[in-house]
Input
Amino acid sequence: MAEDFNTDSMLDMFLYESEQLLGDLQNTVLEKKDEDCFDETSINEIFRVMHTIKGSSGIMMYENITKVSHKLEDVFYYLRESHPDNVPHLELVDHVLDVADFITGELDKIKEGEAPDGDETKIVADIDKFLKRLKSGIEEQGEELPPENTYVAPSQFYIPPTGTESSKYFKASIYYRSDTEMCNIRAYTAVYSLKEIAEDMEYMPDDIITNEDSGAVILEDGFHMLIKCQCSREDVLNAIGDTSGMDRVEINDCTKQEFEMGFHDHGPEQIVIELEDKKEDKEKKKEPTPGDYVIKGKETGKGKKLAKSQPKPSHKQSYISVNVEKMDALMDMIGELVISEAVVLQNPDLKVPGLDLTNFQKAAGQLSKITTELQDVIMSMRMMPLTNTFQKMNRIVFDVSRKLGKDIELEVIGENTEVDKNIIEHISDPLMHLIRNSVDHGIEDKEDRIAAGKNPRGKITLEAKNEGGKVYIIVRDDGKGLNKEVLYNKARSNGLIGNRPMSDFTDREIYQFITYAGFSTKEQVTEYSGRGVGMDVVVKNIQAIGGKLEIDSMEGAGSEMTMKIPLTLAIINGIVMQVASSTFVIETNAVKEFVRISKEMIVREPNGEEYVMLRGECYPFIRLNEFYHLSDTVTDIEDGIVVLLEHENKYISVFIDQLIAEQEIVVKPIPSYVKRVRGISGCTQLGDGSIALILDIAGLIIGQERS
Output
């Protein structure tokens, strides 16, 4: 546990766990939305989620969240105990989702530092009416109602009691040094850390959350726990860990009877067994016995001491939640480390003739290896699956399709595909727009689908996959597709394409018209479309993270929208090159080849455009010195180097003075006060401290096509 653990950490735990539980709740509900009723497993799962949120929000004293959670828990308690027939399933689904939305809204307020002051009265009243209707149906049948599900304010951290005959029982005591502050909060961290492995638990003092004075009691007498679990003493010890201020931890076996007696029938002095410091007894012990596992607190300048050998670490995988800001800070530090490594390895002092750099090269190789591994680790830590993002789309399809009166199912493929967390945050809104667009524009009404010989139920497929250093997120529907003539006429009437004929555009270019600002084919403004905004914002958000949106369609068969985005944004491999006194960087994956050419291989058009002929193929040609108005550069085509670049199956060649090196580069954004330049996507700092500009291949290609 972190040494600066405080009540803010308790709030972070509450928010994190509640959001995870609400995500599970919505997934469970939406999976069963088309069924006749919830099965027993789903009822138990929803009851468990509501029970847990009710307990934790009660501890945090968020009364409105506690009330709505308890009222919905009442419903599923009744369903679990009475098994009534003819439950209005969709109405129940709506109630569950209403509660989930209410709690989510309150959690958002808490995260913004505001008070969760939402009025729960109407939701509680609606659910209460629904529950009374269910109960009246039972009473009419002459059956007996189950006992009331009464709410008791929590005094202990909630751990649901479970267990089997193989359960083990332990007495654990934690003692803190005399100068330790906030012992009750530190004791809470121990209880929380045991939450995942404990089947049942009791601790003393039992008011560590609500009574600050309990910290003084713990400092004086220690903190004592009775634990029921399936784990060994070593596992319990590892779970508790070694927080600052801790003097020692004592873990001893106890019987089932002693566990069930709890702390109310005997004092802690009977729980803790003192060790006898007898040399002859220690020599006789061959197997570990109670009291062997005692952590001695760390003293200044000394490491952790164990009374016996270090327990074997558990092979059970464990997780820890970390603040995203800390991850971002760590990523920035890794970036600075990469730059510092380049500064060291490219230091001009190393180029002095006659220096023996054998040992330095060995050390430099080891440094590069560690830096690369460290970078890989932090990048993997930032990679997150798209599961949660995709699951949210299920709710959007459900809500929008019901309001529009359409019957639509969502198929999800590849939701475990991982991308950088920052990218996930950038694609959530664009993905939501694409899904809504498919529901509103793409899928026809039920009658139109039947008339066209289609399945009355529409289908939207959401797919993710990795390919060539990019992640592809595809939204596909089996709707009416896009009509090229309608799109062309609308774009022309809106003045978006001038008077250019339709033959000037490819099919894909015509489909891209829907991404232009102010473009909409919807004649009637609805809650979801018709205002001419949305798709242009989608494209801007995708381009902001170096991505691209491609649209394909077949009229009458459906449409497919594909987001192509990089896996990560922070550090890439690049080729550093020189043009005059300026330095540029190109991403290594974009480079197809380097080639020296002769003057005869250059083709010049009357309008000034140039092309280079390579092995019978003609490629657009850009002289970077002329493109960016640079002087004192190589002008003879045979003295420079041509770099052939590829982006999305399109090629372009650029002319440079010389190649410098290939190295890892840290991508930095262009400062906002610098005017945006075509063909430049960012900048980076090189080992000698100079700044290099990162070329945007897509921007160069688009600029060449438009010119």
